[in-house]
Amino acid sequence: MRTAILCLAACTLACAVSGASAQGGPPDTAKLLAAQRSAMQSLARMDGVWRGEAKTTLRDGQVRIITQTERIGPMLDGTIKVIEGRGYDATGAVVFNAFGVVSYDVSKASFSMRSHAQGLSGDFVFKPTPDGYSWDIPAGPATIHYSATIRDGVLHEVGERVVPGAQPVRFFEMTLRRVGGTDWPAGGAVPPK
Questions:
Q1: What integer is the mean pLDDT of 47-61?
Q2: What is the span of the domain harbouring residue 139?
Q3: What is the mean pLDDT of residues 161-184?
Q4: How far apart are the C-alpha atoms of 12 and 10, rounded to whole Å?
Q5: Which of 5, 56, 73, 151 lies 20 to 30 Å from 180, alpha-carbon distance?
């Protein structure tokens, strides 16, 4: 345990020193956090608990329909957005589970999402839109493009395979209704005593 703590302290110090030397002094963390919080406000409509139907067309052409749920909320004082998605089959068994963290990089003036699902993970460009968001997964010569709208308590997201020179092929669609608010993940923190 002591070794882990020393390692963590050394890594933290190395990051702080490298960041400070690159900028000529320590970063103004209050300004960074304020800029991140401000940028993340564009995603506030995502917050809450969502439930509805998701349809996926598998490679063999079969269509799989599940009940999809999402719980989405801010963490780290509103500087990141945390997303958990669960899909249930007709028996109530979990057949899909995903976890993502959306963050804003002040130095690049851009959003990204770290996603984990089905044994895979990756960092992807995430773009807020006037009424939702989009994100892309590079897939060889193709791109998996997801786009979503959030209007009147309905989150509608589609996924398409996009290959240069060909029409996009839709393989995923979900329509979820906001069924409530949540204090997840920030709520329920361990108190000091």
A1: 97
A2: 45-180
A3: 97
A4: 5
A5: 56
Total number of domains in the chain: 1
Look at residue 1 and tell me if it is in a domain: no
92 to 54, 95, 96, 101, 144: CA distances (angstroms): 14, 9, 11, 26, 28
3-state SS class at 142: strand
- What's the token pair of residue 6? 């020393």
In the chain, pLDDT over 70 holds for what percent of residues? 88
Helix (H) or strand (E) holding 21: helix 2-23
- Contacts of 15 by beta carbon, 8 Å cutoff, 6+ apart: none
Whether 150 is covered by a domain: the verdict is yes
Instruction: Tell me how crowded residue 87 is: count the other CB atoms within 10 A of its CB.
Output: 20
Question: pTM score, two decimals?
Answer: 0.84
CATH number at residue 123: 2.40.128.20
Q: Is residue 152 part of a domain?
A: yes
25 in a domain, yes or no?
A: no
The residue written with tokens 């909320």 in the block is 73
d(CA 76, CA 37): 9
Instruction: Give the separation between CA 180 and CA 183, rounded to whole angstroms.
Output: 10
Instruction: Check if the beta carbon of residue 54 is closer than 8 Å to that of residue 21.
Output: no
